[in-house]
């Protein structure tokens, strides 16, 4: 029997931990224009290892300190709400802040941001990678 893989950050490293199932594709990395970065845009996305541990999304990458983001935060601050393009779909997302943006931008070598799909965004139709 094969263990399913979950991808808390779409297009980044997957994990077989069943605790990650509720967080599958909850986050994504977007460029400055708000478009979802995929491995075809940035090969280094696959080098980012993701874990779900003790209430945090934990990211690790070669040459970088680990980055921890709280998993379950109430989304009530509209100042961090923005739009992201996933394929032809535009989705409401929550920006995870400057520290996460700096971490991802430095590792990926281009300006980008980590965002979380807003809980009221509805169903996301993820294109095939």
What report would you give on this structure?
The chain is mainly beta and 129 residues long. It has one domain. The chain is 9% helix and 29% strand. It has 1 helix and 7 strands; from the N terminus they run E-E-E-E-E-E-H-E. Strands 1-7-6-5 form a 4-stranded antiparallel β-sheet. A 3-stranded antiparallel β-sheet has the order 2-3-4, with no helix packed on it. Strand 3 and strand 4 form a beta hairpin. The model has no long low-confidence stretch (mean pLDDT 93).
Radius of gyration: 14 Å
Summarize the biggest pleated sheet.
4 strands, antiparallel
What is the typical, i.e. mean, pLDDT? 93
- Main sheet: strand order: 1-7-6-5
Number of strands: 7
Pattern of helices and strands: EEEEEEHE
Strand content: 25-35%
Q: What's the tally of helices?
A: 1
- Helix/strand structural class: mainly beta
Low-confidence stretches: none
Terminal residue distance: 24 Å
Please give the share of residues in helix: under 10%
Question: What spatial form do the alpha-carbon principal axes imply?
Answer: globular
